[in-house]
Amino acid sequence: MATQLTLVSFSYFLIFCATMTFSPGPMTLLLMGFGMQQGLKRSMPVQLGASAAYLVSILIFAVGFAEMVKGNPLISRGIQYIGVAYLLYLAYRQWTSSGLKLERSDTLEEGFKGRFGKGLLTGFSNPKTIVMFSAVFPQFAGQGSATRAQDLLVLGLAFLLLQFASGCLYCYFGQRIRRVLQSPARQVLLQRATAIMLLGVALLLARGFA
Q: Are residues 80 and 205 in contact, defined by beta-carbon separation less than 8 angstroms?
């Protein structure tokens, strides 16, 4: 990759983030369920809990881990390979997935703390978060750049904004999105498009090995 965060790498990063945050997963399906049952306003604590979980993960796994391995090219190269392999794995899973299981969960009447905790635990409980923030995020920041930590913070902020926007979208349009995702043909189309985008980002990162 380039020695600093560039417009091209940031553009590919936005594609990656949009793919990860807007594609249906445990968090988006949770938010969609809350939005369908209780509306956007009462779903906001869940969204805030999810954002808090991702913020802590970014600080620990992206910024913190990048600083730990700084100056060690062997470990950095290994992380690069792990990041590319992870994206290829996600692309394969999306292409071969048999579809989403959409079930209407029971109405939850927790207060603010309960709903915030639900989003927080869902954000922390996904093991893919560790790999994504520790092995993929750093690839878009400058390698060996003096502004690497700042680059990661910019990338983290961009991810949080897209994640928050996607969460609000799923909460507000939960019923309509659910009807779209219940169509097997549309699910396959969405999964194939997601796989192609992830493959494109993986190829971009692989070019950084040259």
A: yes
3-state secondary structure of 18: helix
Nearest-angstrom CA–CA distance, 173 and 39:
9
**Beta-carbon count within 10 A of 197 CB:** 20
Query: What is the C-alpha separation between 11 and 82, in angstroms, rounded?
Result: 21
Q: Give 132-195 as a 3 state SS string.
A: HHHHHHHHHCCCCCCCHHHHHHHHHHHHHHHHHHHHHHHHHCHHHHHHHHCCHHHHHHHHHHHH
pTM for this model (two decimals): 0.74
Q: What would the two tokens of residue 70 be? A: 């700084």
Residue-by-residue pLDDT tens, the chain, 210 positions: 444 677 888 888 888 888 888 877 778 778 887 877 777 888 889 899 999 999 988 888 777 776 776 667 777 778 778 888 888 888 888 888 766 555 554 445 578 888 899 889 888 887 677 777 877 887 787 665 567 778 888 888 999 999 999 888 888 877 677 777 777 777 778 788 888 888 888 887 777 654
Give the separation between CA 65 and CA 81, rounded to whole angstroms. 16
